[in-house]
């Protein structure tokens, strides 16, 4: 997903465009990793005097709900990254730097046999560890 696609989703759902929202989206477009609200706040503070955690969290959760961003819990804190726009896959996530690597294998292929009489609505599968750089 790129900045314009994300802004189109925002506009299509009836939310207004602001420079702050564009800045947030650009921040995640330029990252290939999960980042925290604190990371985003530190990035935005030089450009937006007095920006608050409340503004950051409100927009992060909105973008998560609109599926512009995806989130995960890492080291007891919520982290966000730009939603991947292509085929179904899962991620390895570095616990130190937050970088991700796509994993094409989906364990649901095997698990669905164990859940024959259940209706699975959604699932999430993530692997955590340390990337080669952080080992």
Automatic annotation (TrEMBL):
Amino acids binding Zn(2+): 94, 97, 131, 134
GO biological processes: negative regulation of DNA-templated transcription; regulation of secondary metabolite biosynthetic process
Binding site for Fe cation: 88, 123
Cofactors that this protein relies on: Zn(2+); Mn(2+); Fe(2+)
SUPFAM superfamilies from the UniProt entry: Winged helix' DNA-binding domain
GO molecular function: DNA-binding transcription factor activity; transcription cis-regulatory region binding; zinc ion binding
Note on how the cofactor is bound: Binds 1 zinc ion per subunit.
Gene3D superfamilies in UniProt: 3.30.1490.190, Winged helix-like DNA-binding domain superfamily/Winged helix DNA-binding domain
Cellular component terms (Gene Ontology): cytoplasm
Similarity comment: Belongs to the Fur family.
Record-given protein name: Zinc uptake regulation protein ZUR
């Amino acid at each position: 997903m790129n900045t314009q696609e994300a802004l189109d989703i925002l506009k299509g759902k009836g939310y207004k465009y602001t420079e702050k929202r564009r800045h947030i989206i650009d921040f995640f477009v330029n990252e290939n990793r999960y980042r925290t609200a604190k990371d985003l706040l530190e990035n935005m503070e030089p450009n937006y005097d007095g920006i608050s955690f409340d503004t950051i969290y409100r927009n992060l959760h909105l973008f998560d709900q609109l599926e512009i961003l995806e989130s995960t819990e890492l080291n007891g804190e919520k982290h966000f990254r730009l939603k991947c726009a292509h085929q179904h896959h899962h991620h390895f996530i570095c616990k130190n730097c937050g970088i991700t690597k796509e994993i094409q294998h989906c364990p649901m292929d095997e698990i669905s046999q164990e859940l024959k009489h259940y209706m699975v609505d959604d699932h999430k599968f993530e692997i955590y560890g340390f990337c080669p750089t952080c080992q």
